[in-house]
Amino acid sequence: MTKKSWYPWVVAIDIIGPLLIAIGMIFSKPIEYIGVTLFACNIVVYTAYLLAYLRKNALDNKATFFLGLSCLAFYTVVVLSILYPLLKKIFFLIILDFIPVYGSLHALVLFYVD
């Protein structure tokens, strides 16, 4: 991927996006929205490229599985984030309800990988 001409832009947006989000949270909502949009679009482009790469190139089965799983996890999180306002009204969920689930999943995955 580093040989691609657009790769430096992906890296730059990966660095600038979270900075804009943090600055926007403190000073200005429009800056935060710009940062979130840049960062999310950047990750969508990266994961789409990675999935296409994994499909065309043979890697170790374990590496392919986990890279593909991480891409699909990102898309799942995006869909759930978009649906969160609707789910909140239907199931009366709040962000604090997701913290134990999120933490448990990370703990299980890290335990399995180690």
What can you see in these coordinates?
- The protein is 86% helix and 0% strand.
- The protein is mainly alpha-helical.
- Helix 1 runs antiparallel to helix 2.
- The longest helix has 31 residues.
- The model has no long low-confidence stretch (mean pLDDT 79).
Overall geometry comes to: flat
Q: What does the main sheet amount to?
A: none
Terminal CA distance = 27 Å
Hey, roughly how much beta strand do the residues contain? Answer: under 5%
Report the count of strand segments. Answer: 0
- Give the helix proportion (percent range): over 70%
Task: Provide a concise account of the structure shown.
This protein has 114 residues and is mostly helical. 86% of the residues lie in helices and 0% in strands. It is flat, with a radius of gyration of 17 Å.
Secondary-structure topology with pairs:
Layout: H1 7-26, H2 29-56, H3 61-91, H4 95-113
Helix pairs in contact: 1-2, 2-3
Question: What structural keywords apply?
Answer:
flat; 114 residues; single chain; mainly alpha; 4 helices; 86% helix
